[in-house]
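Hey, quick one: can you model this chain's 3D structure?
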Amino acid sequence: MARHYEHFSLDERCSIAQLHQAGQSIRQIAAALDRSPSSVARELKRNRGAQVGYKPSYAQQQAAARRWKGCRLERNAPLRHLVLQRLRCGWSPEQIAGWLHRQDATTTISHESIYRFIYAQIRRTNDSTWRLYLPKAKYKRGRRRRRAAPANLIKNRVSIALRPHDVLLRRTCGHWEADLMLFATPGQAVLVAHERKSRVLLLAKQPGKAARPAAEQLLTWLTPLDRRLRKTITFDNGTEFAQHFILTDQLGIRTFFCDPHSPWQKGAIENAIGRLRRPLPRSTDLATIDNNDLNALVAAYNNTPRKCLAFNTPAEAFFSQLLHFNCESTSSLRSE
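Sure thing. Here's the predicted structure for all 336 residues.
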């Protein structure tokens, strides 16, 4: 039979102090209190003062201070309000924790504590809407398996295996990935482009999965950029990118395609689309979303701090590269 466990009371601590001061052994004290000798030994070791030794009142305070008093977000209303406000803005718990640490806030919290708080509220209140605060809105933490989209053979496609290894390492800028977000209503789609190093994001509505409009939109985005900011672009095997060669012919951009059934090879944009699915779920009717709404979503995404960028924002990372290239161009002109 399992034994019932109880903490030492103040009266028991007074008895321990008296018997210990009288010179009795731990086993004698335990027998007098009908307690385990290990419990008495642990009590004398953990709750004694370095200067005063074992005192009942001090031991009681030490034991009370170690007891769990509930989640910090439950005890700290201002911190709870700040965290929930950022979660409503689409920030992940890890982004919030990193941002607070970077701001040198007087009160910080770990992302694990935020996750525990949200799931504790679901269990305590039996209200599953608490999960909507989280990026993936899962009922339980863990990874989900994703089905790979079918691959299509595209004329003049170059395998991702031939892409420079430097692209994978994200050490240089100018390497893009592109994909199409589809919705439940047939013919509705959004073209998404993502720069691998800075994580900056671009969005635009598309008239379905036609290849020509997709190529023209990518040209509109990439043409104004410095050539060092548009070196390569990686696609999946969807037919909407069948006219990829236009980018090569007009801008000199090298195009690459993932292996069949391997969208994970362009994981940066898959992650970005996963984040965009929060404000733009598949059930969204794009007819109710205008360009201003899309621009607001892009601005929110590009101005959200990211852990992979040392909690800088994608906009800050991208424009720092742009400013760097502009300064280099200005210096070279002056030297001439």
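One thing worth noting: The two ends are 90 Å apart (CA to CA).
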